[in-house]
Specification:
The chain is an alpha+beta fold. It has one domain: Aminopeptidase. Keywords: Acyltransferase, Transferase.
Length: 169
């Protein structure tokens, strides 16, 4: 696979990001919602770009020292190629540089690949939002202490393995 770039989302990415959202989620944001998000000073959105094409995106809201992850999606044709993990790593690195010491998200209980990815990076279950996803429960996951040396070691080891796999492709 050619080099993937993780970069900040810009307005010209919205159309492609909205298409990826439609492929990925049963309910998704409108174009105007994306425009509003990009102007929100507490919202940070990234895209994965491959050969000039946006193939995934992710984002979070920074609330004090907490990164509240709002979305992570990869275009159907590019799934199962570590792009979601690349986006998650980029997002967690960005969150930390912005002062986040913890991160949280909701994930469909039935989304086993996402559950596995988040657990790999130290997210743990802390609750349930009943019916959050069109009637399906959403699990609330947290990493409470990203400054903890054990979490940093886990993150660094996972990131190093990821980058070794990506660079060997």
């Amino acid at each position: 696979m050619s080099a993937v770039t993780i970069r900040p989302m810009v307005g010209t990415d919205i159309e492609t990001v909205a298409r990826i959202e439609r492929q990925s989620f049963t309910s998704n944001w409108t174009t105007s919602a994306w425009v509003n998000e990009l102007s929100n000073p507490f919202a940070i959105y990234l895209v994965a770009e491959l050969e000039g094409e946006v193939v995934g995106h992710c984002g979070f809201h920074l609330v004090m020292d907490e990164a509240h992850i709002t979305t992570l999606a990869v275009a159907e044709t590019w799934r199962n190629q570590k792009l979601g993990e690349r986006l998650l790593v980029g997002m967690l690195e960005t969150a930390q540089t912005r002062g986040a010491t913890s991160a949280t998200l909701e994930v469909r209980r039935s989304n086993a690949p996402a559950q596995h990815l988040y657990q790999k990076y130290g997210f743990s279950w802390e609750g349930t939002r009943k019916g959050y996803y069109d009637g399906e429960d959403g699990d609330i996951l947290w990493v409470r202490r990203m400054e903890d040396p054990a979490w940093k070691k886990r993150f660094t080891e996972n990131r190093t393995r990821l980058m070794a796999v990506v660079s060997s492709d």
